[in-house]
Amino acid sequence: MPQDDADPTPAGGASARPATIMDVARLAEVSPSTVSRALSNPGRVHHRTRERVEVAAAALSYVPSNQARSLSSGRTRTVAVLVPDITNPFYFDLIRGAQRRLNAAGFTQLLVDTDESSDVEAAALEVMRKSSDGVVLAASRLRDEHLAEVARRQPVVTVNRDVPGVPSVVLDTPTGVTQALGHLHSLGHRRVAYVAGPANSWSSARRWTALETEAARLGIEVRLVGPWSPRLTSGAAAADAVLGERVSACVVFNDLIAIGMLTRLRDRDVRVPAELSVVGCDDVFGSDFCHPPLTTVTAPIEDAGRVAVTMLLSRVEPAPSAPPRMRAVLPTHLTVRASSGPAPNAEK
Questions:
Q1: Same domain, residue pair 166 and 130
Q2: pTM of the model
Q3: What are residue 195's phi and psi, to 5 degrees?
Q4: Where does the HTH lacI-type domain lie (predicted)?
Q5: Domain annotation covers residue 222
Q6: Pick the residue with more confidence: 106 or 2?
Q7: In terms of domains, do 19 and 46 share one?
Q8: Are 196 and 250 in contact (CB under 8 A)?
Q9: Residues 131, 179: one domain?
């Protein structure tokens, strides 16, 4: 075969254009479809043919087009990560963990903020069905039936949401808030409020159930206050509501609300923890240097992002020897700081 037919480089030595798959096919003396298979799915091509294609591609400095590769394989090599609120520090670590795992696998992350809206979330999932290879869905606000339907038509892994038949990564915060209640009990607190998250939050409902169960065991009165949007701005109203319950301590749905409460309590000259102990959840960035530093449930949030992507990729690119994992539960623990202390009326 004449070299001129395959070499896209002109006689002068300067490259006139990037090498194409047709150039590689001519030089390797195979069809363009064989080149595509050899480079994108080498296991489907005889090893001698694959080596010939690889040598030709290297000689021509051929770089496969992502667009062409997507068309031939039906894959985009992108994964969408949907979060309810991109400004919430909880999701910083989740996004970072997902990003690092995707980078290592040669995938690109598409980040979508669903604005705490089930309608926005549903619309984004429909778009991502065609625009990505799969979805990591954090703290979904969709109904169970809707999530199950989504999982039937596209690869998806949820974080902090557990629906039968849908792969999930769950942070065991109920155990963490149970530890928090035990901690408060040991400090003499007998009337405790739970400051709830959004009404449609699966994780908030689980934490309340765990607190009710543990409160009954310990002989503590626990009161439900809320629901509240999981934002810093909810803290002022939440603090006022808790003060109206005449409790000595509160366990709060997340650190953002708790930090907002600390600001409001300071404005109202309520001393924390001398008059009211406050316990948050998640241990997000900033919880250790607010005033006072926040006692909170520490969760491995970055690990959750990594594990969710690993589970998703096992569905996008399945390995016959390793069945995809359906559920992962990550442990949490209580981190005690200065915002919790003895109950005002506790015996010395």
A1: yes
A2: 0.77
A3: -90, 105
A4: 19-73
A5: yes
A6: 106
A7: yes
A8: no
A9: no
